Amino acid sequence: MSKKPEVIFKYIFTYDYNPVYVNGAHGGVSPRGDLVVNFYLERPPLPNEITHEVNPNGTIGAETGVEPEDFAQSLVRFVPTGVVLNYQTARELHHWLGEKVRELETLEQHKAAMRAAAQQPAGGEGVQH
Question: pTM for this one?
Answer without folding.
Answer: 0.70
